[in-house]
Amino acid sequence: MKILRVYERYFGRLVYGVFAFILFAVLSLFVFFDMLNELENVNNQYTSLVALFHVLLQAPTRVYEVLPIAVLISAIYVFSQLASQSEYTIFRVAGLNTRQALFSLFKLAVPLAIVTFIFGEFIAPRAEQYAQKIKLEAIGATVSSGFRSGVWVKDRDKDAATGGGEITRFVNVAGLRPDQTITGITMYEFDPQYRLRMIRVAQEGRYQGGQLWELQGVNETRFIELASPAQGAKPARDSLAPDFRAEQVKFPRVTMHSELTPQILSVLLVTPERMSTLDLFRYIRHLRDNKQDTQRYEIAFWKKVIYPLTLFVMMALALPFAYLHARAGAVGVKVFGGIMLGLSFHLSNTLFSHVGLLHTWPPIISALVPGTLYLMVALLALRWVDRH
Predict the structure, then answer these.
(1) Which ranges does the record mark as transmembrane (predicted)?
(2) pLDDT in tens, 153-180
(3) Is residue 246 part of a domain?
């Protein structure tokens, strides 16, 4: 037990030390390139200082994204150095076997997995939202989705006219300001029989709390059904006459009840992959309530849940490099190959998300497949080096 505590402390000191340096180096590289990219948008309003502040606020997101790769690179470097100096061989002679070493590395990965979870859930999403708001306030713009017309959202509400039933709205929002005011609002409202009953256009809307919105500059086009003749009676009007008539009304302000909240609309500011699991869960529930497709957001949700566990896979991938010998040659090439293996894991993680979305795989399968495949590769490599 004493030898176990000694080598665990020794491994931990080496891995954590190199990890801090690698993370700082990789993060600095990302910040540098992000700043170069932002310089293209610098003007009198969006100054270089604001751009730098925007990039620095995005740094927690970069930390979250590169943590597994930094862990792999640092662990590979440490174990390749231990192998080249025969230190790991000494530990094996002293009684350290492969299973004990792997279990010890998993223990070293626990604090790093907790750090990854904290960054992914609390620090990065909030910093990302604040970074977007800082930029939008500086350039005086709004955010919209990939559609030219804005974002489309489905909404439901009770039919106030009849006191029962459920009306359905399809809401188009052209933009969301940093103060969470929505602009360019167009609503298509259908009755419980899915007949168009109203088209409402508003200049902007402000959330009042309690699922209430105050719309300003409202122009409504209402479709009113004409009275039907009594049963058995001859229709009083021509058969070609319309069954509905339209009327237009304008209001300076309208208070509207809606299930939509600024938190739901905030998906405009942050992509699903950069949202917290709690925000993703709320938005998935909203989409399900409105019978909309949730697969993309469910894949992002499960990836967020599983992502901290990928650090254990990275540690398992790094351990076989401890069994390399300097006299075998090409240690640097093998280390480089291990780094490329880690980068390929990151790329395959993204690839399987798109493949799963394309082929409608279960979201949890799309999130689990890359980690499972690379864990199997790591265990097979450990078995091979242990036997040879």
Answers:
(1) 12-33, 63-80, 101-124, 305-324, 331-352, 364-385
(2) 888 887 765 566 788 899 988 877 756 7
(3) yes
